Amino acid sequence: MDELALIASAQRGDLDAFNTLVLAYQDTLFNTALRILGDEDQAADATQDAFLSAFRGINSFRGGSFKAWLLRTVTNACYDELRRRKRRPTTPLEPNTGDGDEMDSPRWLADPSLTPEQQNEADELEHAIQHCLENLPVEFRTVVVMADIQGLDYVEVAGAMRVPLGTIKSRLARARLRLRECLQGFWELLPASFRLREETNA
Amino acid sequence: MNFRDVELLSAYLDGQLSPSDSARLESRLASDPQLRAVMDDLRSARGLLRKLPQRRAPRNFTLTPKMAGLKAPEPRAYPTLRFATALATLLLVVTFAVNGLTPLATRSLAAAPAPAYGMGGGGGCDNCGGGAPETAPQESPAATLAPFAAMAPTETPGPVTSLAVPTQAADLTQPTAEANAKSLPPESGNGQPPQVRNEAPIPFTWQIALIVIILVCGATAWFVRFNNERKIRKQWDKK
Question: Which residue of A has its CA nearest to B68?
């Protein structure tokens, strides 16, 4: 069954149709939440909340990109989670230091296709990127996650975040610049191509 | 080099510039190494983000009907049974109201000269002498309810005794019922039988019947809905 038909069924209250959409988009929503929140459990909670509010508000979907509409619900759920976190600050289980010395490599990040050394490097690089993402103001982070990680175009991001297109362009440029600066701190983790270009530029 | 240039470079990388803006930027890039360096920086950051591996969801986030707040659809018979229960309850209340108010209304009309606080059923009229003939014209409300009494003649002593009417009233019940069935012959105007009928215009059996209807319909409605919900939940759980 195609997506539009499933959405139409879900809008009539068909939970099975909605759950088919959930299965199709749960990885996308979970990844978005994970990159915004940086914590797997909180990302899972935000994803569940997002799907729940998406089902309840599915009649407000009036066409366009369903993925962008769902991403809006998950970013809203993430903002709620961040507000809760602000009210009840918790100590992170994984040390998150500026120099990255004590960064853990959680088991759930493991990719079985890589050798242990490659896996270790990939984990560390991923962790470094996540660390830099979390250093961005949340509205910059959301734009960069939607555009660069989820591959939405500017119009979709603007629609999902309900901000003008110019703001998206500006935030994205600023976020990329800040990420580049932050990643300088993880020089040894960056891929060779990245380093070579940096050496050429220097 | 200003932030406007950074924005242009970022949009250029995403293919979001118009062809004329792109051409203009490309000619600047060819002649400006600093601009090129910034573009490389932005491209690197963008490339790293785009290469981030997509994680699989740690579990399925499908919603259960309970989470979604869905209710099992009502069984077809449920609204009918609910309506029947409500209607029977309403009728029961009406019977109580009629049975309670009619004697009062009758007494206030019939025993106008007698003291208003003459409680105890028709007892107030037993002492007032002229009251009896005056009650005869008050037959009409009771007469309209005559079939009720005729349908359940043996039950009439119930409400009568409960209203503390002397035992002779019970003895009079049978002729009263017969009299009602014969559309009120003239001898019914002797004063006492009409008073007996006025005490309970709607017989007690009707109230019992209504209570039985309420209990049966209410219990069936509850059972039908409970059973239906259990069945639906089982189906949902299987999925």
Answer: A52
CA–CA dist B125, A13 (Å, integer): 69
Numbered residues of chain B with Cβ closer than 8 Å to any chain A Cβ = 3, 6-7, 9-11, 14, 16, 37, 40-42, 44-50, 52-63, 65, 67-70, 239
Kindly give, in sequence order, each residue whose CB lies less than 8 Å from that of residue A4, ignoring residues fewer than 6 positions away. Answer: none
Alpha helices in A88-115 (DSSP H): none
CATH number of the structural domain A1-89: 1.10.1740.10
ipTM > 0.90, yes or no: no
Per-residue pLDDT for B187 more than 90? no
User: Within a domain: residue B131?
Assistant: yes
Give the tens place of pLDDT for each residue, A160-189: 998 999 999 999 999 998 998 888 877 666
Q: In b/e form, how buried is each residue of B159-187, taking b as 16+ CB within 10 angstroms? A: bbeebebbeebeebbeebbebbeeebeee
**Residue A109: per-residue pLDDT:** 45
What are the residues whose beta carbons fall under 8 Å from the beta carbon of B119, sequence distance 6 or more? none
Q: How near does any CA of chain B get to the CA of A115, in Å?
A: 16
CATH level 2 (architecture), domain A113-202: Orthogonal Bundle (1.10)
Question: What is the CB neighbour count within 10 angstroms for residue B18?
Answer: 9
DSSP state of B62: P
For B44-56, what is each residue's pLDDT tens digit?
889 888 888 888 9
- At residue A131, what are phi and psi to the nearest 5 degrees? -60, -45
- Residues with Cβ within 8 Å of residue B190, at least 6 apart in sequence: B132
